[in-house]
Amino acid sequence: METTPFNQKATSIIRLAVIGGGLVLIIGGMKTAAHIVNMVLLAYVLVLLTVPIHRWLTKRRVPSFVAVLFILLSIVGLFAIVGLFIGMSIAQLEKDLPAYQAQLMDTVTNVQTWLAGKGLDISTLPLPTSIPLSSIAQPALSFASKLFSGISSGISSIALVMVILFFALLENGRAVTRIQNAFASSRDTLASIRTVNDGLRKYIVLKAVTGAAMAVADTALLFAVGVEFAPLWGLLAFLMNFIPNIGFAIAVIPPVILAFLQFGLGKALIVLVGYVIINTLVNTILAPRIMGKGLNLSPTVIFIALLFWSWVLGGVGIFMAVPLLIMVKVLAGEYDDTRWLAEVVSGDGE
Length: 350
Fold this sequence. Notes:
By secondary structure, the chain is mainly alpha-helical. The protein has 14 helices and no strands.
C-alpha cells in the first residue's frame, strides 16, 4: 500500500494520541500513589547526591558497608537537627506573637500621629481598635503548614527511604553494570540516562551552593539589622532557593514584616533592599560560574510545572518540579515524536 502524506499525518496523530493517553495514565497513577512516588523520588535524589561520597570513601579503602552506614547516619542526623531547629523556632515565634501585636499597634499609633502632624487627621475614620496579628499571620502559617505537611508526608516513612538508599548504595557498582548491559544495544538511551543524572546532580548542587551563600548573607544582614530569628529566616532562604520564581518572595516576606514590627518602615526597607541585592548578586555572579550556560528552561514553563507537580505530588512536588522538568526535557529530546516538547520547555527553543 502506497504511503501518502495524509497517511503519515494520521499515523503521527495516532502516535501522539497514544503517547498522550499513556502520560495521562502515568500522571493519574502518580497522583494516586503520591506517597510512594515521593519516597522513591526522595531516595533517587539522595542516591544521586551520595553516590560520589560513597565512591570517594570506598576509594580510600573504607569498607562499602561502613561507608553506607556513615552516609545514612549523617542524613538522619541532619534531618533531625533541622527538624528540631525549625520546630523550636516556630514554637518560640508563636509564643512571641502577642508582643509583636503590641508593637504593631504602637506602629499604627505612631503613623496616625505622624499623619496628623502633616495635617491629615484619620482619627475620625472607622479604623479597628485592635489588629489581631495572629489572624493576619494565619494565612502564612497555614501555607507553611501545608507545605511542610506535604514534605513531611514524603519523609514520614523516612525509614523506607533510608532502606531504599541503603540497598542502592550497597549495590551501586552492580547496578551500573546491569544498566550498561541492559542498554548495550541502545547507546543513545544510556547516554540520555547519564545526561539526566548529571543534569539533576548539577542542578541540585547549584541550588545548594547558591542557597547556602544566600542563607549566610541574609542571616548576616538580619543579625546586623537586629531582626529576631535570623537563623530561621536564613534557613528559609536556603530552602526556598529550590523553588524557582516564587521562592524568593516567600523567603523575603517574613523577615521584612518582622523588621517592620520591631523597628518600623526604615529597617524593613533595608532588609528588603538587602535581600534583593544579595539575590541578584548570587544569581548573576555566583550561579553562572557554577552552572555555566544554565538550565535553558522557560520561566513560564517552570511556573506551570510548579503548579502542576504540587497538584500531583503535594509539597514534595514543589521542590521536585524543576528536576522532573529536566528529566522530561532530556528524555523528550531523544525521540522525533516528542522532540517538540523539549523545544517547548526550553528557554530559547533549542
